[in-house]
Amino acid sequence: MDSKQRAQAKKIGEMISILLSVMECSNKNCIKEKQAIEKNKDLIAKKTRLNLTTDDNEKAKILTELSKNNTIYKYDKCVFKNCREILKKLINMFKTIASNIPKTNSKYNTIDKMINELNILFGKINFTKEDHKIFITNFTEIMKELK
Predict the structure, then answer these.
(1) Total domain count for the chain?
(2) What's the gap between Cα 144 and its chain centre?
(3) Strand, coil or helix: what is 131?
C-alpha cells in the first residue's frame, strides 16, 4: 500500500468514526424520533430496499422518497439540532476528500457547491423541510461522488 492509499484509508477511517459519533449522538438525543421510524412498516421496507440495492440511481430514488417522509424529517431535524458540531466535522471531512479531486474535473464544482450549501444549512437555527430536502440531496450526491 503506497502513501496515497494509506492517506485515503485513514480519511475513510476518520469518516467512519465521525459517522459512528453521529449515530451515538442520535441514539442519545433522538430516541423518540428513532423509535417512531422503527415502528413505521413503510419506512422499514424502504430502508431495507435501500440497504439491499447496489444501484446508485435506485439508492438516490429511495433516499428522495425517504426525505419526503415527515417522520424522517423529524428525526433528521433532531439530529441536526443535537449533533450539529459532529455533522460539521463530517462536512469538513468531505472538503478534505474533495480537495483531492482535480479542479478541472467536472465533478469538482458540483461537489464544492453542495458542500458549501451544507455549510450554510449548518449555520441556520431552524431546519425546515426545504432545508431537509437540500440536505438529503446534497449528502446523497456527495457520498456517491466521493466513494
Answers:
(1) 1
(2) 10
(3) helix
Q: What is the pLDDT of residues 20-68, one digit of tens each?
A: 999 999 999 999 999 999 999 999 999 899 889 888 888 888 888 888 8
68: helix, strand or coil: coil
Closest of 131, 132, 137 to residue 60, by C-alpha: 137
Residue indicated by cell numbers 426525505: 67
- Structural domain boundaries, residue 49: 31-146
Section 97-104 average pLDDT: 81
The per-residue pLDDT of the chain, averaged, comes to 88
Please tell me the distance from the alpha carbon of residue 133 to that of residue 52, in angstroms, as a whole number.
23
Backbone angles phi, psi at 102, to 5 degrees: -60, 140
